[in-house]
Design goal:
Low-confidence stretches: 135-141
Strand order of the largest sheet: 1-3-2
Order of helices and strands: HHEHHEEHHH
Number of helices: 7
Strand content: 5-15%
Distance between the termini: 43 Å
């Protein structure tokens, strides 16, 4: 894809798809959201993004750095110190993600209630009176 053509995330070969995946994947969005709060060292960031493995955080940071969203700065100290911060583009993306994160967190009572209704309608393992297509797809399964 050349620079003079618009990018289309819905097109299979468009490189914007990979960037969208890096940004919206679980670890990418949480990492960008955490970095929105400031500069972090690797282990600080790992503690902030609870549950991420060292390997996954490293891969996530590399992908975000490659996409120009995260800046990695290694200090020539002993032991080495590496700081991660958002680039201006990364800050712009993180601002939007933080808005989405805040929306989801603020609406969790409604989400929990919807989940409870959904589960109650379907009973223990049944399809209930919900989606007929779902019920049809389980016949003969």
């Amino acid at each position: 894809m050349t620079d003079d053509r618009a990018y289309d995330v819905f097109a299979r070969a468009c490189p914007s798809r990979a960037t969208l995946e890096h940004v919206t994947g679980r670890w990418g969005s949480l990492t960008l959201g955490a970095l929105h709060d400031g500069t972090f060292r690797f282990n600080e960031l790992r503690r902030r993004v609870d549950g991420v493995s060292e390997k996954m955080l490293s891969q996530t940071l590399q992908a975000l750095e490659r996409d120009g969203l995260v800046h990695r700065e290694a200090q020539p100290t002993n032991p080495p110190r590496v700081d991660y911060t958002l680039t201006p583009l990364g800050r712009e993306v993180a601002e939007r993600l933080v808005g989405l994160i805040e929306l989801v967190e603020g609406r969790m009572p409604q989400v929990v209630a919807a989940r409870e209704r959904y589960d109650a309608e379907r009973g223990a393992g049944g399809t209930g009176t919900g989606d007929p297509a779902r019920a049809a797809s389980t016949v003969g399964a």
